[in-house]
Amino acid sequence: MTGPIRVRFAPSPTGPLHIGGLRTALYNYLFAKKNAGTFILRIEDTDQSRLVPGSEQYIKEALHWCGLIPDEGPNQGGSYGPYRQSERSSLYEHYVHQLILSGHAYYAFDTPEEIEAMRQREIAEGNKGPKYDQSTRKTMRNSLTLGPETAEQLVADGKPYTVRMLVPASREITFMDEIRGSVRIHSKELDDKVILKTDGLPTYHLANVVDDHLMKISHVIRGEEWLPSTAHHVLLYEAFGWADIMPTFAHLPLILKPSGKGKLSKRDGQKFGFPVFPLAWHDTGDPFEGFDSFGFNPDAVVNFLAFLGWNPGTEQEIFSMDELVQAFDIQQISKAGARFDYDKARWYNGQYIQAESDESLANHVLPFLKGKRDEDLSLYISEVVKLLKPRIQTYREFPIEGHYFFNDVESYNGKMLRKKWKEPNRTHFLTLISKLTEVTEADFQAEKLKSVVHTYIEEYELSFGNVLPLLRIALCGDTKGPDLFDIMEVLGKKTVSSRFQKSPVVFDGISD
Ligand code: GLU
Question: Which residues are catalytic?
Fold first, then answer.
């Protein structure tokens, strides 16, 4: 297909958008931007029974969060709207009738029970995967078996009906896929798909093909699960006489479970304790966490997702959206499934955290500090994040890892304390903490505090390894964390003094 590049992301609003769907949106976006094309959002909501309230809004917010803003869509408008299929239903009728008139589709009056009875009959006769298809359609109640007049009469009488595609016998359907090369599917494997349901609405297959045509879509980039349906779509393009102007197809590899076995599912998030949705979902049904509530930077999520199934063929791993646009090449998308590696996602996020300014980091961390949002705190948090950021991979970890910056210390590492606490050193410890407490507010800075401790240790020939951990336990409850004197400076004289004051009593309770 020649002409301008126009791609669409076409989700069904049947629940929160899985990151697999988000990756599809991302690849469409990158491809469009790389080729000065148009990125379209089309909401495929013709299956009313599966609609989940709130999910269309969720999809839009998730795209927005990642910076994937559609050029055309339900909110943006455009020359090919409406962009919500439920608002296009009158349009599809015309195309269904065209297919019936040209002999590419037929009315079917079978009830669900009759279809089930046919399946049972076929199974009893040894047919392993019975379908409504070229071998069974002649045993059913449709316009092919009843004749066109009877069928028209039943329709006129208001009898419920569906319209099905008439899949041709003995056809090898071949199409090119940008990722998989040439794909062949024999028509005997295809069922006569329903294209118009009893509720008068089209199914995905018809609406998708008609809309891709009317919206002048140049490339259909979508998940691998739609590969088998593409044979039906090709037949529809042919039946409409659009075969020469059919879009180019690209079917993306699956995202696999961390084990590499099987498709990553919604439930895997809860099972393995990582997010599989971009944003947290609270609307209907079970709530889910999102990359946002896990404390991820959306740019890191985009970077991570871009690499799930694609790579630029170089060593570079950190890419801004603009760099991704420049580097993206559909030919470099892999055929094989991409294993979801949560550690890698965290690694990316850690890289983005390192690169963030302290002010921006503070703003991102604030929402994770429940109810403590005020001006003073933002300044304080900038100081805290500066110290913690080399050790942290998600925003959510800051208040956990650095709990002692925000809350009093309630529990102490008793094992370490017993190891380091030497009774003969009690006097030294008491003198040292009182020396530190005596440092004035104005001088309460890392360098000064460090010199107080070092001078004392040297003077009494003590060991750093025995003294520093005790001071740290007194202030933070444990022996790990950023530089001790930086911690003291950020905590400030008041907090440091009060924690030191209560520590001898606490230590006595733990160390014996
Ligand atoms: N509505 C389909 C989905 O939910 C779109 C598939 C396609 O892109 O053709 O995935």
Answer: 266
Under 8 Å between Cβ of 151 and 163:
no
What residues contact 495, with CB distance under 8 A and at least 6 apart? none
- Under DSSP, the state recorded for 391 is G
Nearest CA to ligand 1 atom 10: 11
| Bridge partners of residue 38, in order along the sequence | 6
d(CA 80, CA 240): 19
- The end-to-end CA distance of the chain, in Å, is 81
Mean pLDDT for the stretch of residues 16-21: 94
What SS3 class is residue 65?
helix
Nearest C-alpha neighbor of 474 from the set 440, 431, 439, 429: 429
How many angstroms is it from 61 CA to the middle of ligand 1?
18
DSSP code for 178: T
Ligand 1 atom with least separation from CA of 24: 8
302-332: pLDDT as tens digits: 999 999 999 999 999 999 999 999 999 999 9
Q: Which of 40, 44, 43 is nearest to 70 (CA)?
A: 40
Q: Which helix (H) or strand (E) holds 255?
A: strand 255-256
Check if the beta carbon of residue 8 is closer than 8 Å to that of residue 219.
Answer: no
Give the Å distance between the CA of 52 and the centre of ligand 1: 16
- Pairwise CA distance, residues 403 & 457, whole Å: 29
Instruction: Decide if 436 contacts 404 (C-beta within 8 A).
Output: no
pTM for this one?
0.93
Work out the widest C-alpha separation in the chain, in whole angstroms.
109
Distance between Cα 201 and ligand 1 center (Å): 17
What token pair was written down for 173? Answer: 């359907």
Sign of the Cα pseudo-torsion (126, 132, 134, 136, in order): positive
Cα(22)–Cα(45) distance, integer angstroms: 18
List, for residues 99-151, the tens digit of each pLDDT value: 999 999 999 999 999 999 999 999 999 988 899 999 999 999 999 999 999 99
Classify the C-alpha dihedral 417-422-426-427 as positive or negative: negative
How far apart are alpha carbons 242 and 98 in whole angstroms?
A: 13
Ligand 1 pocket test, candidate residues 83, 88, 204, most atoms within 8 A of CB: 204
**Which is nearest to 384 in space by CA: 368, 412, 352, 361?**
361
Q: Is 42 in the pocket of ligand 1 (CB under 6 A)?
A: no
Four-residue CA torsion sign, 263, 266, 270, 276: positive
CB atoms within 10 A of CB 156: 8
